[in-house]
Amino acid sequence: MFDPSFSEILAFVITGIFAASGLVHLAGPGFVHRAYERWGFPADFHRVTAVIELLTAAFLAEPTTRLWGVILAAMVIFVAVVTLLQNRQYAWSVPGIVLLIALIPASASALA
After folding, report:
1. Which residues of the chain have a pLDDT value below 50?
2. Do 65 and 59 touch, CB atoms closer than 8 A?
3. Nearest to 55 by CA among 81, 18, 17
4. How many degrees, rounded to 5, is the angle at CA 81 between CA 76 and CA 85?
5. What 8-state DSSP symbol labels residue 24?
6. In sequence order, which residues have a C-beta less than 8 Å from that of residue 69 and are 6 or more positions away?
């Protein structure tokens, strides 16, 4: 019987968050385009973000590559939080900081 630990469940929740975010960035609705333009990124940079986030989700989903997924997720979240803080969007950076902290217990399932 499959009895997932807290760290495994957390890793799968974070996987879902990255997969959903990657799909939203890939679709590129108007609010995503406007945000990237406001932050000074190139026109199609949201697609680069989408690919990286989907790759992160794929790494996090597989236990053998989860450590790489945690490392990649930490880098993606760090860049996102720094971008938000530079643009004075402090409230929007809080979920990113919480997600970054959640990677710590999620990484335990990668080391088990």
Report:
1. 1
2. yes
3. 18
4. 150
5. H
6. 11, 15, 56, 57, 58, 59, 60, 61, 62, 110
